[in-house]
Design brief:
This protein has twelve helices and 18 strands. By secondary structure, it is α+β, with helices and mostly antiparallel strands. Strand 8 and strand 9 form a beta hairpin. The protein is elongated and about 85 Å long.
Length: 443
Amino acid sequence: MEFLTGVREKETLEICRIIGGHYEGKPVKIRGAVHNIRDMGEVAFIILRKADGLVQCVYEEGRTAFCLKELREESAVEAAGTVVREPRAPHGFEIRLDTIRVLSEPDQILPVAVNKYKMHESLEARLGMRPVSLRNVRERAKFKVQEGIVRGFREFLQGQGFTEIHTPKIVVRGAEGGSNVFRLDYFNKKAELAQSPQFYKQTMVGVFDRVFEVAPVFRAEKHNTTRHLNEYVGLDFEMGYIDGFEDVMAMETGFLQYTMKLLEREYRKELDMLDVVLPDAARIPAVRFDRAKELAAEKYGRKIRNPYDLEPEEEQLIGKYFKEEYGSDFVYVTHYPSKKRPFYAMDDPEDGRFTLSFDLLFRGLEVTTGGQRIHDYREILSKMEKRHMDPEDMEPYLMIFKYGMPPHGGLGIGLERLTMRLLNEQNVRETSLFPRDVNRLKP
């Protein structure tokens, strides 16, 4: 009988261990995929692809006990050899090969050249072959940066006393209302895919005070734009005992500051590969919704057409204004009209036409929506009545207010949009692993 006592120590090494250890001149074993083969005659360079980068291996005829002609790109191999310092190689070292053992090999030749530094195929072609195209080092670097954003979100909020929660995605009613919901049959009952974790994260404020979630969000919108997805990852948090919605904006600002430092410190390789210049989040301006529209109209001569919402072009102009005037890539637009906010948004007590809510624009694109919520039971019933909503349809949600809730607020961030703007991509599908839009349901 065998007993497992933990993670098994492997004979093979990872790149970080070779870099951090004293392996120069010593024999090592390393496993990876054959990314590229450059045959120079008696010598060949075999580049292995691993999760943390590329490794240059040197094949020498007469020394390496393997027939180079039998090796194919994308084969999974175990390479054994001696570590030699080489400043021109990735990570500053190479491995002089003694032997290669093939662990598996591809059945067909790759349909796209993933070993090129930049892939020149169209976005549609890359998405259609996503399981393969993601092997390209620049394509996958986007998602290492995205990992850093999520990591920053988790680490920062946990450091601020937040508890991570996991809420259901099959619900009886969408949090945002309207028709943009995916309906499904749930054991002969009507159900929907969650548009937002809103109701549940508010519920959990009454339990843990401060909560957050990283989870999918579903929107049945028939948009076919460069900024919309029908399934995306939401970074959501909700916090209780706030003095105002400004506390929520301050918390998001702290998250952005923490995350930019984390990316600079631990994701520099990916940032350099993608030519990313990180934004400065030290000071983020905030401007009222109506004033933001006026500023953009006055400076750029664009007539205000919709007094109740920001059109995409207006978002771009507002972002441009605050970049030119204040050098900021970010701007909080506050006090959105009540007509454009959900029923649970708290109205401004000084002017009920507006709400204590905000959007965060990042380089002219809305990446966050948040604000203060109504926490008083009678007040939320009154607002539902004004909107001709039936309280009985939302009894489980209203229960939390009936039995007491603290003043609270929160926000939702679109992960793919935030990543898209950070990387200066022009289409949100570039920063979604396997995007779902009106035309795409696979791979």
